Amino acid sequence: MKATVPYYPYAAYQKEKYGEKVYKIPISLPVTCPNRDGSMGINGCDFCAEEGAGFETLSSKKPVKEQMEENISYIGKRYGANKFSAYFQNYTNTYMPMKDFKQYMEAVLDDRIVELAISTRPDCVSDEQLDYLKEYKRIHRKNIVMELGLQTANYHTLSRINRGHGLAAFIDATNRIKQRDLEICAHVIVNLPGDEDLDMIETSDILSALKVEQVKLHALYIMKNTIMGNQFEQGELSIISKAAYQRRVILFLMHLSPEIAVQRLIGRAPKENSLFVNWNTSWWKIRDEIIAIMRQENAYQGKRAKF
Ligand code: SF4
Q: How many Å separate Cα 202 from the centre of its chain?
């Protein structure tokens, strides 16, 4: 673990893996989600807005290659980047017929792309897709990261927010992905209503025991015209304080295996159409405050890790 921050940062993980920083370029596909289109549910997760869980993406109407070129050109120039990860970010990027899935994955075959990061629900990853990705990795020598939304290990909370899957689906997907030697980045929302510190400790313990490679932590943000948005406007939903969020992140990190890279301690969130975003504080300030508290208290990732 790098000594610069008291956790294993994603940048250090990338440096070890690729020799330099790899920039994620978001690719938006014209897909939806089984929890929105009626095959599993209609309203989606209680926090999910119309555009799905991703934002900052180009229109999904643009061909994938065009999105890729545009983003590589912009990010490449801005940061002097050479290597990129094609990040299929929005909605459920495995929810489509196999022939479409193959076509999208093949559209990003390019020497500058060293990794595919595919965001999806844990209950929506087929063995056929995973077998294909295993071969894709072998033939094209690209790293494959499945970005799985777990959100919390508390299956009562998952049920309450209409997630449509429980903890077992995540464990099952993780096992099947690992059998193919692909990587997993688990997404976690640290402060879902109803969750307590203990739920995040358990989530951290489970992710450590399952040996996922990466985690990405988010604070819940509330968008207009969502179920949670309506609850928030009617005063039926309260959000823990920034200090409580930071304390919970630190507990999570202390229980997390030091082998797991941390992509983020808090996500960026859209301001437009939002009712609550990151306590009106920039994400990097919240991150810096967490790091300062950890240093002050000699807290570090893995300090209480059991797995
Ligand atoms: S799984 Fe993702 S895209 Fe689907 S409803 Fe939930 S947050 Fe939205």
A: 18
Backbone angles phi, psi at 48, to 5 degrees: -80, 130
b/e burial code for range 109-132 (CB count within 10 A of at least 16 → b): eeebbbbbbbbbbbbbbeeebbeb
**How many whole angstroms from 301 Cα to the centroid of ligand 1?**
29
Task: Tell me, yes or no, whether 306 lies in a domain.
Answer: no
- State the residue range of the domain holding 260: 10-296
pLDDT band at 270 (very low <50, low <70, confident <90, very high): confident
3-class state of residue 82 by DSSP: coil
Q: Please state the atom number of ligand 1 nearest to the C-alpha of residue 163.
A: 6
In a domain, 3, yes or no: no
Q: How many domains does the structure of the chain reveal?
A: 1
Cβ of residue 121 lying under 6 Å from some atom of ligand 1 = yes
Instruction: Please say if the pLDDT value at position 2 is more than 50.
Output: no
3-state SS assignment for residue 197: helix
CATH number of the domain encompassing residue 141: 3.20.20.70
Rg (CA), the chain: 19
* CA neighbor of 225 nearest in space, from 45, 46, 49, 91: 49
SS3 133: helix
Q: What per-residue confidence (pLDDT) applies to 54? A: 53
Nearest CA to ligand 1 atom 4: 33
Distance CA 30, CA 141 (A): 26
Query: What is the C-alpha separation between 129 and 96, in angstroms, rounded?
Result: 10
> What pTM did the predictor assign?
0.95
Determine how β-strand 183-189 pairs with β-strand 143-151: parallel
Whether the CB of 161 sits within 6 Å of ligand 1: no
Residue 2 covered by a domain = no
- Asked whether residue 303 is assigned to any structural domain, the reply reads no
| Cβ-contact 26, 116 below 8 angstroms | no
